[in-house]
Task: structure prediction
Amino acid sequence: LQFDGVPMFEDDGSYRGMLFLLQDVTEIRRLEAMRSEFVANVSHELKTPIAAVKGFAETLLAGGVKDKETERSFLQIIHDEGERLNRLIGDILELSKIESKRAPLEYAPVNIKELFDGIYEMMRASAAKKSIVLVQDIPEHLYIEGDEDRLKQIFMNLMSNAISYTQDGGRVKVDVEVIGESEEEEKVRVTVSDTGIGIPKKDLPRIFERFYRVDKARSRSSGGTGLGLSIVKHLTELHQGSVRVESKVGEGSSFIVELPVMQSAEPEI
Ligand code: ADP
Result:
């Protein structure tokens, strides 16, 4: 609690009394602490790729690298780290837009099957590179009311994680079903499951936090930003939905997103 007192005076200058203001600043302090932690994390995350770009470029400029193959591999690193910086900045901006509520959702009926056809198209190449089989079981004529670009982002993030954290030759599957007792409670449940490395039990409660990773090195080498799941969580909640995870180390993970079939009213944003 913060306690402030100011003296009050009458128009003629005589003392009238004190005005006391008692304010609960716990929430403000908590948000301030979160913000400064976020800034510290962001700076750290940006420094790593920048250091790599600088270091490898300097080595090349110094002319110490003679064989073409090493030169190429250094250039590849510079390129990849540049890409990662780009993604990182994109994710940070996206997250801050969502959090400051400056990004109103554009609601329209979205056909889930078509949404996933588009996503599969974009994911095919990275799955093929690892010989990962993509499977889907999605009803043809199912619509949800939502922001198509945001929905796409939710499922792209989940699909690209599933591919990144699954060994070569594995399988990634999307199941969509309607759940709910009555028509008013109807929801669409989308499950993105993989046969990948899984997530240790102790990490499960934290993986939706910004920059939280089970294995930093692995996330980096797969080009991850550590922000994907936190964006997924924010966006599903903006759609009045929820997301949760079930996972077993060495067996695989399932991310389960539930969204209302139809929004009855425009949500507050
Ligand atoms: P990243 O960019 O590191 O993938 P995310 O926010 O998308 O960041 O995910 C956070 C962490 O959760 C990842 O670093 C990884 O450790 C873990 N994770 C996410 N999806 C999966 C998955 N399908 N299988 C195993 N681990 C996962």
